[in-house]
Amino acid sequence: MKGKSLNGSRYGFQLTIKELLNGPKLSAQDQEIVYRDRIRYTYKDLFARINRLGSALAGLGVRKGDTVAVFDYDSHRYLESFFAIPMMGAVLFTVNWRLSPDQIEYTMNHAEASVVLINTDFLPLLGSIRDKLKSVKKIILLSDSDTLPKTDLTIDGEYEAILAAASEDFDFPDLDENTKATTFYTTGTTGLPKGVYFTHRQIVLHAMSVCIGVSGHDSPLRFSTSDVYMPITPMFHVHAWGFPFIATMMGVKQVYPGKYEPEMLIKLIVSEKVTYSHCVPTILQMLVASPVAKKIDLSAWKVIIGGARLSKGLAMAGIDLGIQIMTGYGMSETCPVISVSNLKPSMKHYDNEQKSDIAIKTGMPVTLVDVRIASPEGNFLPNDGQTTGEIVVRAPWFTEGYYKDPEKTEELWRGGWLHTGDVGYMDQEGYIQITDRLKDVIKTGGEWVSSLDLENAISLHGAVQEAAAIGIPDPKWGERPMMLVVLTPPFRGDGITPEVLKKHMKECADQGKIPRYAIPDQYIITDNIPKTSVGKTDKKIIRTLYASI
User: Fold this and answer.
1) Is residue 286 assigned to a domain?
2) Catalytic positions, please?
Protein backbone atom coordinates (compact mmCIF):
# COMPACT_ATOMS: atom_id res chain seq x y z
CA MET A 1 0.00 0.00 0.00
CA LYS A 2 1.54 3.32 -1.08
CA GLY A 3 2.78 5.59 1.65
CA LYS A 4 2.53 2.96 4.37
CA SER A 5 5.30 1.07 6.14
CA LEU A 6 5.59 -1.99 8.37
CA ASN A 7 4.44 -1.13 11.87
CA GLY A 8 4.88 -4.45 13.61
CA SER A 9 1.20 -5.11 14.26
CA ARG A 10 -0.47 -8.34 13.31
CA TYR A 11 -2.58 -8.31 10.18
CA GLY A 12 -5.66 -10.49 10.09
CA PHE A 13 -5.61 -11.38 6.40
CA GLN A 14 -9.01 -10.87 4.77
CA LEU A 15 -10.23 -12.67 1.65
CA THR A 16 -11.19 -9.58 -0.34
CA ILE A 17 -11.39 -8.94 -4.07
CA LYS A 18 -8.42 -6.56 -3.80
CA GLU A 19 -6.17 -9.51 -2.94
CA LEU A 20 -6.96 -11.22 -6.27
CA LEU A 21 -4.79 -8.56 -7.93
CA ASN A 22 -1.62 -9.34 -5.94
CA GLY A 23 -0.42 -12.07 -8.31
CA PRO A 24 -0.99 -10.39 -11.69
CA LYS A 25 0.52 -7.13 -10.39
CA LEU A 26 3.80 -9.03 -10.07
CA SER A 27 3.61 -11.45 -12.99
CA ALA A 28 1.34 -10.07 -15.72
CA GLN A 29 1.97 -6.33 -16.06
CA ASP A 30 2.42 -6.62 -19.84
CA GLN A 31 -0.41 -9.08 -20.50
CA GLU A 32 -3.14 -7.83 -22.84
CA ILE A 33 -6.80 -6.93 -22.42
CA VAL A 34 -8.76 -6.37 -25.64
CA TYR A 35 -12.18 -4.83 -26.28
CA ARG A 36 -13.69 -5.76 -29.65
CA ASP A 37 -11.47 -4.39 -32.43
CA ARG A 38 -11.33 -0.99 -30.72
CA ILE A 39 -9.19 -1.01 -27.59
CA ARG A 40 -6.06 -2.85 -26.48
CA TYR A 41 -4.16 -2.21 -23.26
CA THR A 42 -2.08 -4.03 -20.65
CA TYR A 43 -2.75 -5.24 -17.12
CA LYS A 44 -0.57 -2.35 -15.95
CA ASP A 45 -3.11 -0.05 -17.58
CA LEU A 46 -5.94 -2.08 -16.01
CA PHE A 47 -4.57 -1.56 -12.50
CA ALA A 48 -4.22 2.17 -13.15
CA ARG A 49 -7.75 2.39 -14.55
CA ILE A 50 -9.19 0.49 -11.58
CA ASN A 51 -7.55 3.08 -9.31
CA ARG A 52 -8.86 5.94 -11.43
CA LEU A 53 -12.39 4.50 -11.37
CA GLY A 54 -12.27 4.19 -7.59
CA SER A 55 -11.05 7.79 -7.34
CA ALA A 56 -13.69 9.05 -9.78
CA LEU A 57 -16.56 7.31 -8.00
CA ALA A 58 -15.36 8.60 -4.65
CA GLY A 59 -15.38 12.09 -6.18
CA LEU A 60 -19.00 11.53 -7.18
CA GLY A 61 -19.85 10.80 -3.57
CA VAL A 62 -19.84 6.98 -3.59
CA ARG A 63 -19.15 5.65 -0.11
CA LYS A 64 -18.92 2.26 1.56
CA GLY A 65 -22.26 0.47 1.39
CA ASP A 66 -23.57 2.48 -1.58
CA THR A 67 -24.87 0.55 -4.59
CA VAL A 68 -23.52 1.29 -8.07
CA ALA A 69 -25.53 -0.10 -10.98
CA VAL A 70 -23.88 -1.04 -14.29
CA PHE A 71 -25.66 -1.37 -17.65
CA ASP A 72 -23.16 -2.52 -20.26
CA TYR A 73 -22.22 -5.20 -22.74
CA ASP A 74 -19.18 -7.39 -22.01
CA SER A 75 -16.41 -4.81 -21.95
CA HIS A 76 -13.13 -3.64 -20.40
CA ARG A 77 -15.22 -1.06 -18.51
CA TYR A 78 -17.26 -3.85 -16.92
CA LEU A 79 -14.07 -5.66 -15.93
CA GLU A 80 -12.79 -2.50 -14.24
CA SER A 81 -16.12 -2.16 -12.42
CA PHE A 82 -15.91 -5.78 -11.21
CA PHE A 83 -12.89 -4.73 -9.17
CA ALA A 84 -13.05 -1.00 -8.40
CA ILE A 85 -16.63 -0.83 -7.10
CA PRO A 86 -16.46 -3.62 -4.49
CA MET A 87 -12.86 -2.73 -3.61
CA MET A 88 -14.22 0.66 -2.44
CA GLY A 89 -16.59 -1.14 -0.09
CA ALA A 90 -19.51 -0.24 -2.37
CA VAL A 91 -21.84 -2.83 -3.90
CA LEU A 92 -21.61 -3.70 -7.61
CA PHE A 93 -25.13 -4.16 -9.02
CA THR A 94 -24.98 -5.88 -12.41
CA VAL A 95 -28.25 -4.92 -14.09
CA ASN A 96 -29.95 -7.40 -16.41
CA TRP A 97 -30.89 -5.00 -19.19
CA ARG A 98 -32.91 -7.75 -20.90
CA LEU A 99 -35.62 -7.54 -18.23
CA SER A 100 -38.75 -5.53 -18.86
CA PRO A 101 -38.66 -1.82 -17.92
CA ASP A 102 -41.03 -2.52 -15.00
CA GLN A 103 -38.72 -5.26 -13.69
CA ILE A 104 -35.64 -3.05 -14.07
CA GLU A 105 -37.42 -0.25 -12.22
CA TYR A 106 -38.29 -2.68 -9.42
CA THR A 107 -34.75 -4.09 -9.12
CA MET A 108 -33.08 -0.67 -9.09
CA ASN A 109 -35.40 0.63 -6.38
CA HIS A 110 -35.16 -2.60 -4.40
CA ALA A 111 -31.33 -2.53 -4.55
CA GLU A 112 -31.31 1.20 -3.75
CA ALA A 113 -28.89 2.05 -6.57
CA SER A 114 -27.41 5.54 -6.13
CA VAL A 115 -25.07 5.79 -9.14
CA VAL A 116 -25.63 4.32 -12.63
CA LEU A 117 -22.93 3.55 -15.19
CA ILE A 118 -24.80 3.05 -18.46
CA ASN A 119 -23.96 2.24 -22.06
CA THR A 120 -25.44 4.80 -24.43
CA ASP A 121 -27.48 2.04 -26.11
CA PHE A 122 -29.58 1.75 -22.95
CA LEU A 123 -30.32 5.45 -22.41
CA PRO A 124 -33.86 5.18 -23.86
CA LEU A 125 -34.57 2.32 -21.45
CA LEU A 126 -33.32 4.33 -18.47
CA GLY A 127 -35.18 7.40 -19.71
CA SER A 128 -38.47 5.51 -19.71
CA ILE A 129 -38.22 4.78 -15.96
CA ARG A 130 -36.05 7.64 -14.63
CA ASP A 131 -38.92 9.45 -12.91
CA LYS A 132 -39.77 6.29 -10.96
CA LEU A 133 -36.26 5.65 -9.63
CA LYS A 134 -36.16 6.70 -5.99
CA SER A 135 -32.47 6.49 -5.08
CA VAL A 136 -30.47 7.28 -8.25
CA LYS A 137 -28.41 10.46 -7.85
CA LYS A 138 -25.76 10.28 -10.58
CA ILE A 139 -25.61 8.92 -14.15
CA ILE A 140 -22.32 8.22 -15.98
CA LEU A 141 -22.24 7.41 -19.70
CA LEU A 142 -20.32 4.47 -21.15
CA SER A 143 -19.68 5.15 -24.83
CA ASP A 144 -17.78 3.65 -27.76
CA SER A 145 -18.11 6.88 -29.70
CA ASP A 146 -16.53 10.31 -29.45
CA THR A 147 -19.96 11.81 -30.18
CA LEU A 148 -22.34 11.56 -27.25
CA PRO A 149 -26.04 11.02 -27.98
CA LYS A 150 -28.74 13.54 -27.25
CA THR A 151 -30.81 12.71 -24.19
CA ASP A 152 -33.22 14.39 -21.81
CA LEU A 153 -31.52 12.69 -18.86
CA THR A 154 -29.23 14.67 -16.60
CA ILE A 155 -25.76 13.22 -17.23
CA ASP A 156 -23.05 13.68 -14.60
CA GLY A 157 -20.07 12.62 -16.66
CA GLU A 158 -18.65 10.38 -19.37
CA TYR A 159 -16.64 7.35 -18.25
CA GLU A 160 -13.35 8.07 -20.05
CA ALA A 161 -13.47 11.73 -19.12
CA ILE A 162 -13.97 11.11 -15.41
CA LEU A 163 -11.18 8.49 -15.43
CA ALA A 164 -8.82 10.89 -17.18
CA ALA A 165 -9.47 13.52 -14.50
CA ALA A 166 -9.06 11.07 -11.58
CA SER A 167 -5.96 9.96 -9.67
CA GLU A 168 -4.06 6.72 -10.25
CA ASP A 169 -3.08 6.72 -6.57
CA PHE A 170 -6.47 5.95 -5.06
CA ASP A 171 -5.99 4.03 -1.81
CA PHE A 172 -8.60 1.26 -1.60
CA PRO A 173 -9.42 0.50 2.04
CA ASP A 174 -8.76 -2.74 3.88
CA LEU A 175 -12.21 -4.28 4.20
CA ASP A 176 -13.73 -7.01 6.30
CA GLU A 177 -14.03 -10.05 4.02
CA ASN A 178 -17.72 -10.34 4.91
CA THR A 179 -18.47 -6.96 3.36
CA LYS A 180 -21.20 -7.19 0.73
CA ALA A 181 -19.56 -6.95 -2.71
CA THR A 182 -22.13 -7.66 -5.43
CA THR A 183 -25.83 -8.03 -6.05
CA PHE A 184 -28.06 -8.91 -9.00
CA TYR A 185 -31.55 -10.26 -9.57
CA THR A 186 -32.77 -13.65 -10.69
CA THR A 187 -36.16 -14.19 -12.31
CA GLY A 188 -38.26 -17.21 -11.46
CA THR A 189 -41.49 -18.60 -12.84
CA THR A 190 -43.64 -16.48 -10.55
CA GLY A 191 -43.44 -13.20 -8.69
CA LEU A 192 -40.96 -10.35 -8.78
CA PRO A 193 -37.22 -10.80 -9.44
CA LYS A 194 -35.30 -11.95 -6.36
CA GLY A 195 -32.10 -10.23 -5.27
CA VAL A 196 -29.08 -12.39 -4.46
CA TYR A 197 -25.89 -11.00 -2.99
CA PHE A 198 -22.33 -12.11 -2.32
CA THR A 199 -19.53 -11.00 0.00
CA HIS A 200 -15.87 -10.52 -0.83
CA ARG A 201 -15.04 -13.78 0.94
CA GLN A 202 -17.61 -15.70 -1.08
CA ILE A 203 -16.39 -14.34 -4.43
CA VAL A 204 -12.74 -15.08 -3.59
CA LEU A 205 -13.51 -18.64 -2.43
CA HIS A 206 -15.61 -19.24 -5.55
CA ALA A 207 -12.79 -17.96 -7.78
CA MET A 208 -10.20 -20.17 -6.10
CA SER A 209 -12.33 -23.33 -6.10
CA VAL A 210 -13.50 -22.94 -9.70
CA CYS A 211 -9.91 -22.22 -10.71
CA ILE A 212 -8.95 -25.59 -9.23
CA GLY A 213 -11.96 -27.19 -10.96
CA VAL A 214 -10.98 -25.99 -14.45
CA SER A 215 -7.19 -25.77 -14.06
CA GLY A 216 -6.22 -28.55 -11.67
CA HIS A 217 -7.45 -31.48 -13.74
CA ASP A 218 -5.33 -33.05 -16.48
CA SER A 219 -8.20 -32.54 -18.90
CA PRO A 220 -8.41 -31.43 -22.56
CA LEU A 221 -10.37 -28.41 -21.30
CA ARG A 222 -7.79 -27.29 -18.79
CA PHE A 223 -7.64 -23.52 -18.23
CA SER A 224 -4.04 -22.27 -17.99
CA THR A 225 -2.07 -19.03 -18.09
CA SER A 226 -1.32 -19.62 -21.78
CA ASP A 227 -5.03 -19.50 -22.68
CA VAL A 228 -6.83 -16.49 -24.15
CA TYR A 229 -10.16 -15.92 -22.40
CA MET A 230 -13.33 -14.41 -23.89
CA PRO A 231 -16.71 -14.56 -22.14
CA ILE A 232 -19.83 -15.12 -24.22
CA THR A 233 -22.05 -15.04 -21.16
CA PRO A 234 -23.36 -11.58 -20.23
CA MET A 235 -21.32 -10.04 -17.46
CA PHE A 236 -24.58 -9.09 -15.73
CA HIS A 237 -25.33 -12.79 -15.32
CA VAL A 238 -23.73 -14.11 -12.11
CA HIS A 239 -20.45 -12.22 -12.67
CA ALA A 240 -20.02 -13.92 -16.08
CA TRP A 241 -19.86 -17.14 -14.05
CA GLY A 242 -16.95 -15.68 -12.04
CA PHE A 243 -14.43 -16.12 -14.83
CA PRO A 244 -13.34 -12.46 -15.15
CA PHE A 245 -12.17 -12.70 -11.52
CA ILE A 246 -10.42 -16.02 -12.25
CA ALA A 247 -8.80 -14.87 -15.50
CA THR A 248 -7.51 -11.69 -13.87
CA MET A 249 -6.21 -13.57 -10.83
CA MET A 250 -4.30 -15.87 -13.20
CA GLY A 251 -2.98 -13.06 -15.40
CA VAL A 252 -4.58 -14.49 -18.55
CA LYS A 253 -5.02 -12.49 -21.77
CA GLN A 254 -8.67 -11.35 -21.87
CA VAL A 255 -10.86 -10.42 -24.83
CA TYR A 256 -14.23 -8.69 -24.38
CA PRO A 257 -16.62 -8.82 -27.36
CA GLY A 258 -19.12 -6.11 -26.45
CA LYS A 259 -22.50 -6.65 -28.05
CA TYR A 260 -22.87 -10.25 -29.22
CA GLU A 261 -22.69 -10.43 -33.00
CA PRO A 262 -21.72 -13.72 -34.68
CA GLU A 263 -19.32 -12.08 -37.11
CA MET A 264 -17.52 -10.13 -34.36
CA LEU A 265 -17.33 -13.18 -32.08
CA ILE A 266 -15.78 -15.31 -34.79
CA LYS A 267 -13.46 -12.48 -35.85
CA LEU A 268 -12.15 -12.15 -32.30
CA ILE A 269 -11.79 -15.91 -31.83
CA VAL A 270 -9.59 -15.99 -34.94
CA SER A 271 -7.69 -12.69 -34.72
CA GLU A 272 -7.01 -12.79 -30.97
CA LYS A 273 -6.53 -16.58 -30.91
CA VAL A 274 -9.21 -17.07 -28.25
CA THR A 275 -8.92 -20.49 -26.60
CA TYR A 276 -11.33 -20.38 -23.63
CA SER A 277 -14.97 -19.27 -23.42
CA HIS A 278 -18.28 -20.06 -21.77
CA CYS A 279 -21.81 -19.61 -23.07
CA VAL A 280 -25.37 -20.97 -23.09
CA PRO A 281 -26.34 -23.59 -25.70
CA THR A 282 -28.19 -21.05 -27.86
CA ILE A 283 -24.97 -19.06 -28.41
CA LEU A 284 -23.05 -22.22 -29.33
CA GLN A 285 -25.89 -23.16 -31.70
CA MET A 286 -25.70 -19.71 -33.31
CA LEU A 287 -21.95 -20.04 -33.85
CA VAL A 288 -22.06 -23.66 -35.03
CA ALA A 289 -24.79 -22.73 -37.55
CA SER A 290 -22.74 -19.85 -38.95
CA PRO A 291 -21.30 -20.71 -42.41
CA VAL A 292 -18.07 -18.99 -41.38
CA ALA A 293 -17.52 -21.49 -38.54
CA LYS A 294 -17.11 -24.30 -41.06
CA LYS A 295 -14.30 -22.44 -42.84
CA ILE A 296 -12.01 -21.76 -39.87
CA ASP A 297 -9.95 -23.84 -37.48
CA LEU A 298 -11.68 -24.02 -34.10
CA SER A 299 -9.61 -26.90 -32.72
CA ALA A 300 -7.90 -24.69 -30.09
CA TRP A 301 -11.19 -23.37 -28.70
CA LYS A 302 -12.41 -24.76 -25.37
CA VAL A 303 -15.97 -23.91 -24.31
CA ILE A 304 -17.92 -24.48 -21.10
CA ILE A 305 -21.68 -24.71 -21.72
CA GLY A 306 -24.13 -23.84 -18.96
CA GLY A 307 -27.50 -22.27 -18.27
CA ALA A 308 -29.42 -25.12 -19.91
CA ARG A 309 -28.74 -28.72 -20.77
CA LEU A 310 -26.28 -29.32 -23.59
CA SER A 311 -27.91 -31.80 -25.96
CA LYS A 312 -25.85 -34.59 -27.43
CA GLY A 313 -26.70 -33.42 -30.95
CA LEU A 314 -25.29 -29.95 -30.31
CA ALA A 315 -22.28 -31.36 -28.47
CA MET A 316 -21.47 -33.60 -31.44
CA ALA A 317 -21.93 -30.69 -33.88
CA GLY A 318 -19.43 -28.64 -31.88
CA ILE A 319 -16.96 -31.50 -31.47
CA ASP A 320 -17.16 -32.23 -35.22
CA LEU A 321 -15.96 -28.64 -35.80
CA GLY A 322 -13.01 -29.31 -33.50
CA ILE A 323 -14.41 -27.38 -30.52
CA GLN A 324 -13.60 -28.93 -27.14
CA ILE A 325 -16.73 -28.80 -25.00
CA MET A 326 -17.79 -29.50 -21.45
CA THR A 327 -20.77 -28.65 -19.27
CA GLY A 328 -20.81 -26.41 -16.24
CA TYR A 329 -23.67 -26.41 -13.73
CA GLY A 330 -24.79 -23.83 -11.24
CA MET A 331 -27.39 -21.25 -10.25
CA SER A 332 -27.55 -17.55 -9.61
CA GLU A 333 -27.80 -18.42 -5.92
CA THR A 334 -24.56 -20.46 -6.02
CA CYS A 335 -22.31 -17.71 -7.47
CA PRO A 336 -22.74 -19.84 -9.78
CA VAL A 337 -20.49 -22.88 -10.33
CA ILE A 338 -21.35 -26.18 -8.64
CA SER A 339 -19.78 -28.68 -11.05
CA VAL A 340 -17.97 -29.09 -14.37
CA SER A 341 -17.84 -32.18 -16.61
CA ASN A 342 -14.09 -32.67 -16.79
CA LEU A 343 -12.88 -35.76 -18.60
CA LYS A 344 -10.86 -38.01 -16.31
CA PRO A 345 -7.35 -38.99 -17.50
CA SER A 346 -8.58 -42.53 -18.12
CA MET A 347 -11.06 -41.14 -20.68
CA LYS A 348 -8.54 -39.37 -22.95
CA HIS A 349 -8.60 -42.21 -25.47
CA TYR A 350 -12.40 -41.95 -25.93
CA ASP A 351 -13.71 -41.29 -29.41
CA ASN A 352 -15.81 -38.17 -30.10
CA GLU A 353 -19.13 -39.83 -29.32
CA GLN A 354 -17.86 -41.20 -26.01
CA LYS A 355 -16.41 -37.79 -25.12
CA SER A 356 -19.74 -36.17 -25.93
CA ASP A 357 -21.45 -38.53 -23.46
CA ILE A 358 -19.19 -37.12 -20.73
CA ALA A 359 -19.41 -33.53 -22.00
CA ILE A 360 -23.21 -33.46 -21.62
CA LYS A 361 -23.15 -34.74 -18.04
CA THR A 362 -23.87 -32.13 -15.40
CA GLY A 363 -20.38 -32.69 -14.04
CA MET A 364 -18.27 -33.40 -10.98
CA PRO A 365 -18.57 -31.01 -8.01
CA VAL A 366 -15.71 -28.53 -7.75
CA THR A 367 -13.61 -28.28 -4.60
CA LEU A 368 -15.53 -27.44 -1.38
CA VAL A 369 -18.97 -28.16 -2.88
CA ASP A 370 -20.96 -30.83 -1.04
CA VAL A 371 -23.69 -32.37 -3.24
CA ARG A 372 -26.38 -34.81 -2.12
CA ILE A 373 -29.42 -36.37 -3.74
CA ALA A 374 -32.47 -36.03 -1.50
CA SER A 375 -35.91 -37.60 -1.41
CA PRO A 376 -39.06 -35.45 -1.01
CA GLU A 377 -38.95 -36.38 2.70
CA GLY A 378 -35.42 -34.98 3.01
CA ASN A 379 -33.55 -38.29 3.20
CA PHE A 380 -30.25 -38.70 1.36
CA LEU A 381 -30.29 -41.22 -1.50
CA PRO A 382 -27.49 -43.49 -2.82
CA ASN A 383 -25.07 -42.38 -5.54
CA ASP A 384 -25.74 -45.37 -7.76
CA GLY A 385 -26.33 -43.67 -11.12
CA GLN A 386 -30.02 -44.56 -11.04
CA THR A 387 -31.79 -43.27 -7.94
CA THR A 388 -33.13 -39.78 -8.58
CA GLY A 389 -34.11 -37.02 -6.22
CA GLU A 390 -33.67 -33.30 -5.71
CA ILE A 391 -30.10 -32.03 -5.87
CA VAL A 392 -29.25 -30.21 -2.63
CA VAL A 393 -25.91 -28.47 -2.12
CA ARG A 394 -23.67 -26.63 0.32
CA ALA A 395 -20.53 -24.53 -0.17
CA PRO A 396 -19.03 -21.51 1.62
CA TRP A 397 -19.76 -19.12 -1.26
CA PHE A 398 -23.49 -19.71 -1.80
CA THR A 399 -25.72 -16.71 -1.20
CA GLU A 400 -26.95 -16.39 2.35
CA GLY A 401 -30.41 -15.61 1.07
CA TYR A 402 -32.62 -13.37 -0.99
CA TYR A 403 -32.25 -9.66 -0.30
CA LYS A 404 -35.09 -8.36 1.92
CA ASP A 405 -37.02 -11.64 1.49
CA PRO A 406 -36.72 -13.88 4.59
CA GLU A 407 -39.62 -16.12 3.54
CA LYS A 408 -38.04 -17.17 0.24
CA THR A 409 -34.64 -17.40 1.95
CA GLU A 410 -36.05 -19.95 4.39
CA GLU A 411 -37.52 -21.92 1.49
CA LEU A 412 -34.18 -21.88 -0.36
CA TRP A 413 -32.17 -23.11 2.64
CA ARG A 414 -34.56 -25.72 4.06
CA GLY A 415 -32.79 -28.04 6.49
CA GLY A 416 -29.45 -26.26 6.10
CA TRP A 417 -29.04 -27.26 2.45
CA LEU A 418 -29.60 -25.07 -0.60
CA HIS A 419 -32.42 -26.62 -2.62
CA THR A 420 -31.69 -26.33 -6.34
CA GLY A 421 -35.12 -27.40 -7.60
CA ASP A 422 -33.31 -29.78 -9.99
CA VAL A 423 -34.02 -33.50 -10.16
CA GLY A 424 -31.12 -35.80 -10.90
CA TYR A 425 -28.76 -38.53 -9.76
CA MET A 426 -25.04 -39.03 -9.09
CA ASP A 427 -23.10 -41.98 -10.47
CA GLN A 428 -20.29 -43.92 -8.82
CA GLU A 429 -17.69 -41.95 -10.81
CA GLY A 430 -18.85 -38.76 -9.05
CA TYR A 431 -20.69 -37.21 -12.01
CA ILE A 432 -24.02 -35.47 -11.40
CA GLN A 433 -26.71 -35.79 -14.06
CA ILE A 434 -29.74 -33.54 -13.94
CA THR A 435 -32.79 -35.19 -15.44
CA ASP A 436 -35.19 -32.25 -15.07
CA ARG A 437 -36.34 -29.26 -13.10
CA LEU A 438 -38.90 -30.17 -10.45
CA LYS A 439 -41.36 -27.80 -12.11
CA ASP A 440 -40.63 -29.13 -15.64
CA VAL A 441 -40.80 -32.88 -15.10
CA ILE A 442 -43.70 -34.42 -17.05
CA LYS A 443 -46.01 -36.67 -15.04
CA THR A 444 -47.85 -39.12 -17.28
CA GLY A 445 -49.87 -42.08 -16.05
CA GLY A 446 -48.13 -42.08 -12.69
CA GLU A 447 -44.65 -42.09 -14.27
CA TRP A 448 -42.14 -39.23 -14.40
CA VAL A 449 -40.74 -38.36 -17.82
CA SER A 450 -37.64 -36.19 -18.12
CA SER A 451 -38.18 -33.30 -20.52
CA LEU A 452 -34.39 -33.02 -20.84
CA ASP A 453 -34.10 -36.66 -21.93
CA LEU A 454 -36.72 -36.06 -24.62
CA GLU A 455 -34.90 -32.96 -25.85
CA ASN A 456 -31.62 -34.84 -25.90
CA ALA A 457 -33.13 -37.73 -27.89
CA ILE A 458 -34.73 -35.55 -30.55
CA SER A 459 -31.50 -33.52 -30.90
CA LEU A 460 -29.91 -36.62 -32.44
CA HIS A 461 -32.07 -36.19 -35.54
CA GLY A 462 -29.95 -34.36 -38.08
CA ALA A 463 -32.71 -31.93 -39.02
CA VAL A 464 -33.29 -30.65 -35.47
CA GLN A 465 -31.59 -27.43 -34.40
CA GLU A 466 -33.20 -27.13 -30.97
CA ALA A 467 -36.22 -28.44 -29.11
CA ALA A 468 -38.28 -28.02 -25.96
CA ALA A 469 -40.45 -30.66 -24.29
CA ILE A 470 -43.36 -29.83 -22.00
CA GLY A 471 -46.28 -31.70 -20.50
CA ILE A 472 -49.74 -30.72 -21.69
CA PRO A 473 -52.96 -31.67 -19.88
CA ASP A 474 -54.48 -35.02 -20.82
CA PRO A 475 -57.81 -36.33 -19.44
CA LYS A 476 -56.61 -39.93 -19.31
CA TRP A 477 -52.92 -39.71 -18.37
CA GLY A 478 -52.84 -36.38 -16.48
CA GLU A 479 -50.13 -35.08 -18.80
CA ARG A 480 -48.61 -36.15 -22.10
CA PRO A 481 -45.28 -34.96 -23.56
CA MET A 482 -45.31 -32.47 -26.43
CA MET A 483 -42.28 -31.36 -28.46
CA LEU A 484 -41.63 -27.89 -29.84
CA VAL A 485 -38.98 -28.18 -32.57
CA VAL A 486 -36.87 -25.74 -34.59
CA LEU A 487 -35.33 -27.27 -37.71
CA THR A 488 -31.88 -26.44 -39.05
CA PRO A 489 -32.08 -24.04 -42.04
CA PRO A 490 -31.32 -26.67 -44.74
CA PHE A 491 -34.33 -28.76 -43.63
CA ARG A 492 -36.93 -26.04 -43.20
CA GLY A 493 -39.80 -26.71 -45.60
CA ASP A 494 -38.07 -29.85 -46.80
CA GLY A 495 -40.39 -32.69 -45.88
CA ILE A 496 -39.58 -32.97 -42.17
CA THR A 497 -43.02 -33.56 -40.67
CA PRO A 498 -44.28 -34.41 -37.18
CA GLU A 499 -44.63 -38.01 -38.37
CA VAL A 500 -40.92 -38.11 -39.27
CA LEU A 501 -39.98 -36.79 -35.84
CA LYS A 502 -42.26 -39.25 -34.07
CA LYS A 503 -40.67 -42.12 -36.01
CA HIS A 504 -37.25 -40.93 -34.82
CA MET A 505 -38.44 -40.90 -31.20
CA LYS A 506 -39.84 -44.41 -31.57
CA GLU A 507 -36.41 -45.49 -32.77
CA CYS A 508 -34.86 -43.83 -29.71
CA ALA A 509 -37.26 -45.85 -27.54
CA ASP A 510 -36.28 -49.04 -29.40
CA GLN A 511 -32.64 -48.23 -28.60
CA GLY A 512 -33.44 -47.71 -24.92
CA LYS A 513 -32.73 -43.97 -24.92
CA ILE A 514 -36.23 -43.14 -23.63
CA PRO A 515 -39.09 -45.29 -22.28
CA ARG A 516 -41.92 -46.10 -24.70
CA TYR A 517 -44.52 -44.32 -22.59
CA ALA A 518 -42.42 -41.15 -22.96
CA ILE A 519 -42.72 -40.94 -26.76
CA PRO A 520 -44.44 -37.57 -27.35
CA ASP A 521 -47.79 -37.61 -29.13
CA GLN A 522 -47.51 -34.10 -30.60
CA TYR A 523 -44.70 -32.30 -32.45
CA ILE A 524 -44.99 -28.62 -33.33
CA ILE A 525 -42.45 -27.31 -35.83
CA THR A 526 -41.76 -23.61 -35.25
CA ASP A 527 -39.31 -20.89 -36.23
CA ASN A 528 -38.23 -20.10 -32.69
CA ILE A 529 -38.51 -21.22 -29.08
CA PRO A 530 -39.18 -18.58 -26.38
CA LYS A 531 -36.14 -17.69 -24.27
CA THR A 532 -35.62 -15.99 -20.92
CA SER A 533 -33.52 -12.85 -20.49
CA VAL A 534 -30.38 -14.98 -20.04
CA GLY A 535 -30.98 -17.25 -23.03
CA LYS A 536 -32.61 -20.22 -21.34
CA THR A 537 -35.64 -21.95 -22.81
CA ASP A 538 -38.68 -20.31 -21.21
CA LYS A 539 -40.97 -23.24 -20.46
CA LYS A 540 -43.31 -21.05 -18.46
CA ILE A 541 -44.16 -19.14 -21.64
CA ILE A 542 -44.29 -22.33 -23.72
CA ARG A 543 -46.74 -23.95 -21.30
CA THR A 544 -48.91 -20.83 -21.42
CA LEU A 545 -48.90 -20.82 -25.22
CA TYR A 546 -49.62 -24.52 -25.71
CA ALA A 547 -51.53 -25.62 -22.61
CA SER A 548 -54.84 -25.79 -24.45
CA ILE A 549 -53.67 -27.81 -27.48
Assistant:
1) no
2) 186, 333, 443, 448
